[in-house]
């Protein structure tokens, strides 16, 4: 593939990217305004016949990387699940659509796509009132929570009660509803000698669901109602990871006993060693760490020689060399923006990416020195304090992400092949003076969403989960998650993504592996933008989801279930119409 000097990527302006927050050292979202129907600031007429018991106002919407920015979407904050039912019936009667809005910490356009004006839509903010949490000792031990609770609040409640999750996403400023919609995950497989705890899953959070309540259309009643689905109900298969095509108000998750974890960071293992081909891989290979501890993450900055490797291990008592921490977000050096970073962002925003190799060296040095000066190269605590580490003040990059489903024995082959292809493509671009990638690659490993992990007889499998097992490939038991990050203002990034994505889909095939998108990230890329490749959207993805499954248990079945419970398309948008069309 030869790089082209194509500058047509649909990138946000530097103003949109920085959001006016750089002076405060953070890329934080600030609403443009909050206007009520009677306000002089309102830019359009309020939605007609809107329920008088629910306040509606205009507010800005931005997604995580600020690639989707809409200044004046009509928004409301229901006080109860019953209010959501009221809203659904109002929307159906008045030709509107509803989009569940959590913390907007996502990349893909499952809330609203880029270019949408918000006309005909009302965002339903779940974070204001739909946040209750209750814990039952069991057995099985469970937590019942509404969709708007953040992972920060949920994990704090679960941990305080003496329970835990095996693995969780690194940011805590995401809602439970949003996390489950895209089957969010952490990084964990059983380590050497590890006995899984009752209530654990090594797959995504969606595999912990025992029941959920959603707003659905009742043909018998001719209106939208609340319906609770149990994990053994075949229809729950489409709701366990629904990509925003449904509105879930509450879930019950199984939980396990709390565990203490140690997290060690290494920055002295070369990328060539960590990602070596299996034939030459040794004790410092990525797979060897995954095999031993079970919980690993490699963060590699392009054009540098040594990744930042994080290794979590189960440690009931504090190891002698570890430092005990009592709260999450311990890597403070990753959650603020330095003057050097701001200078580089300015350059990239003007189209000058020549400083990328030097900047990547600076980024690695910041991690190396930060670990030392903050004393966080070896930390120990209750699970949530070492698993949560990404704050909203971190640099807001865009990420393309894919899950490679394969066998545990193939982990090293997967990461080695990816590293070789990625660095080869980087070099091709660099030889032409182009540097479209200036963020890290992140590699993690999880188990799959095995229904047997659910403490329910006859538990159903989540059809749309990125890590759903393949019944025809029983030896495939892990997912290697491959994420590629860059600033969304970078020229040519989507073209680079498209080239890598094409290789990923074509390389991890046959008896070796299979691929599915990481739904929250960028995928279906063309040279102009992510999520725009119609062949991948309409053919590749449905085929990947359906591969190896029974004829009534694939993509079309999920579409049929979701459409059957929302035949009016109240819980959809133009992008989802295309994806599920």
Per DSSP E runs of 2 or more residues, the count of β-strands stands at 21
β-sheet strand percentage: 15-25%
Identify the overall geometry: globular
Which regions contain 5 or more consecutive residues with pLDDT less than 50?
1-32
The number of helices is 14
What structural category do the secondary elements indicate? alpha+beta
Main β-sheet description? 9 strands, mixed
Radius of gyration: 23 Å
Which strand order does the major sheet show?
A: 16-17-13-15-14-19-20-18-21
Distance between the termini: 32 Å
Query: Helix content range of the residues, please?
Result: 25-40%
Could you tell me the mean pLDDT? 93
Describe the structure.
This protein has 581 residues and is of the alpha+beta class. It has helices spanning 14-18, 81-94, 151-160, 176-181, 271-274, 286-293, 339-349, 356-373, 383-387, 411-431, 493-507, 534-546, 555-565, 574-579, and strands at residues 34-35, 56-62, 69-76, 97-101, 121-125, 133-136, 142-146, 163-164, 209-218, 223-230, 247-254, 256-257, 260-266, 295-300, 308-314, 323-324, 378-382, 398-406, 441-447, 478-486, 514-517. The strands form four sheets. The protein has a nine-stranded mixed sheet with strand order 16-17-13-15-14-19-20-18-21. Strand 9 and strand 10 (223-230) form a beta hairpin. It is globular and about 65 Å long.
